[in-house]
Design a protein that fits this description.
Layout (H helix, E strand, L loop, with lengths): L3 H15 L8 H25 L7 E9 L4 E7 L4 H17 L8 H20 L3 H22 L4 H34 L6 H4 L6 H18 L8 H8 L2 H26 L1 H27 L4 H20 L4 H32 L15 H15 L5 H16 L1 H26 L16 H19 L2 H17 L19 H8 L5 H4 L3
Antiparallel strand pairs: 1-2
Helix pairs in contact: 1-2, 1-4, 2-3, 2-4, 3-4, 3-10, 3-13, 3-17, 4-5, 4-10, 5-6, 6-8, 6-9, 8-10, 9-10, 9-12, 10-12, 10-13, 11-12, 11-16, 12-13, 12-15, 12-16, 13-14, 13-15, 13-17, 13-18, 14-16, 14-17, 15-16, 15-17
């Protein structure tokens, strides 16, 4: 399908507008419309995943002139660094809508319209290959999340919304000014206007220009990810947002901030990146330990997982700025692993809070006997979050720790302690909620998973298990683009493809040859 990406971007946005035609009192129709649109988009998106050829570089590309006088175009495409986040957006949107089914009680049209528009914005930001187009989608993402937190959030939703928006807008403003400067610089050097990302790579800057531009882009992406110390909006936004919105915020939107490091910051300013990388890795290690330690003292289960997310996103930043094949491939793989595990935990805590009336960990206790399926599911997802071997969290963390140690052995060793702290606070929470004596009489009759709740959580658990035992199903899509990417930024890639480690012995040589047949072609060839 020649216009697949455009269809995937536009379909949820048009479905969002279509909400206006549905009477506000037809609640079941509104929910069915939103779920149907998201499932249709996912069905179409399967062609993106199964049609993607790892060795072919950017694929499904579309380009149309938009503002030719300024060199602005509608240019989209996916490679191995972006296809996984694109699929996460498509797959998790119907999960978030189904999780919202009987939980959003007012202004349903607005809520589901925001959820669909959020999906369009996130997908557009990931596949954009024009810097101006990327910035538009980057801002579109903010709008629906602003409304979802501010209208359907918790008691302190106004404070959380203002904090989230102020932080994000400040970072976006500096990035916008940097984008304009970069395009002016290209015009001064080459005599043409362009916002094409590939054309803006490799420009020459003075040291002052380079560091100011690097800082502007870094700030925007560091806030969105977030990177310590730009994280303070996260616990409030994650806690006050309705759980399905928190699910999308942590599972996808935060990953787009980390993706910005890979797609824009590092290849546009490789020299500054190599100089700053040890310092950024240091910030990541601080964020990793800080998030874990703060999580240890939380009494609210949702806030505990919010700080857990900060700690795990710091591991992703650590892997990205290790600037080697293990670190980058592990980070991209962990986009998925973290999205599934942490996202599922937010939804499970929502289910617990609905039954109990609040999220205070001390108020639970011994509910595994009354709700064995809920307890088993929660424990399974927790094991994925802490990196149990056999589940996908282990694969991503293992690769990133190897990459971090290879880049800086001191920081790598310190970072590994984060795995221990993660196990401490997660297992402490599980123990207090599900095991031991029943602390309250109402917990004896705790309601187990319903069919609809199982339909939300079990697909996520199945993917966690499948990609944990068979990570090559994802790594084989990612690794060729990572190899080409490292060559592009002037870092020698690993001699062997990471996915070779998961290849059957009989096909090892064939996979190795295929993975390195034409790394240069992966940068420029379109499908």
């Amino acid at each position: 399908m020649s216009h697949l990406l455009s269809i995937l971007i536009l379909l949820p946005a048009l479905a969002s507008l279509g909400m206006l035609l549905i009477p506000s009192d037809r609640k079941q129709v509104i929910k069915t419309w939103a779920l149907g649109a998201s499932l249709l988009n996912l069905a179409l998106g399967l062609g993106l995943w199964f049609g993607f050829q790892p060795e072919a570089g950017f694929q499904f590309s579309e380009m149309a002139t938009w503002l030719p006088a300024l060199g602005i175009s509608y240019h989209v495409g996916v490679d191995g660094l972006s296809v996984l986040i694109a699929m996460l957006t498509l797959a998790l949107t119907p999960v978030a809508i189904l999780a919202s089914w009987n939980r959003i009680k007012h202004q349903l049209r607005g809520y589901y319209a925001c959820m669909l528009l959020l999906s369009s914005g996130m997908l557009g930001a990931v596949v954009a290959r024009d810097l101006f187009l990327f910035y538009i989608f980057w801002e579109i993402m903010l709008l629906p999340m602003f409304f979802m937190i501010g209208i359907w959030g918790g008691e302190r939703r106004v404070f959380a919304t203002v904090k989230f928006v102020v932080y994000t807008l400040v970072g976006s403003l500096f990035m916008f000014l940097a984008i304009l400067y970069v395009t002016f610089k290209h015009h001064a050097l080459n005599g043409t206007w362009t916002f094409d990302i590939a054309s803006l790579y490799g420009l020459s800057y003075t040291p002052t220009e380079m560091w100011l531009l690097f800082g502007a882009f870094f700030l925007a992406f560091a806030i969105k990810t977030p990177v310590w110390p730009f994280h303070s909006w996260l616990p409030d936004a994650y806690t006050q947002a309705p759980a399905p919105a928190t699910f999308m915020l942590s599972a996808v939107m935060a990953k787009i901030g980390a993706y910005g490091f890979l797609r824009f910051l590092i290849p546009m300013f490789p020299e500054a990146t190599r100089t700053a990388a040890p310092w950024i890795m240091g910030l990541a290690v601080i964020g990793l330990i800080y998030g874990a330690w703060i999580a240890l003292v939380q009494t609210d289960a949702k806030r505990l997982i919010a700080y857990s997310s900060l700690s795990h996103m710091s591991i992703i930043v650590l892997g990205i700025f290790a600037l080697n094949a293990y670190g980058v491939s592990g980070a991209v793989f962990y986009f998925m692993a973290h999205a599934l595990a942490t996202g599922a935990l937010f939804l499970l805590v929502m289910m617990l809070a609905e039954r109990h009336g609040n999220r205070e960990i001390a108020g639970f206790g011994g509910i595994a006997k009354a709700a064995p399926w809920l307890a088993a599911t929660f424990v399974f997802v927790t094991m994925a979050s802490v990196g149990l071997p056999g589940l996908n969290g282990f694969i991503g963390e293992f690769l990133m720790m190897i990459g971090a140690y290879g880049a800086n052995n001191v920081l790598g060793v310190i970072a590994t302690t984060g795995v221990i702290w993660s196990a401490c606070y997660m297992l402490w929470m599980v123990s207090r909620i599900f095991f031991g004596d029943v602390t309250r009489p109402e917990n004896k009759n705790f309601k187990d998973l319903t069919f609809r709740e199982a339909a939300v959580i079990l697909p996520l658990a199945a993917v966690i298990l499948w990609t944990g035992f068979y990570p090559q199903s994802v790594l084989s899509k990612v690794e060729p683009s990572v190899q080409a990417y490292l060559q592009q930024i002037g870092v020698a890639p690993a001699k062997a493809a990471i996915s070779d480690a998961h290849t059957p012995a009989g096909s090892e040589n064939a996979t190795h040859d295929q993975g390195h047949a034409a790394p240069g072609a992966a940068v420029s060839q379109d499908h």
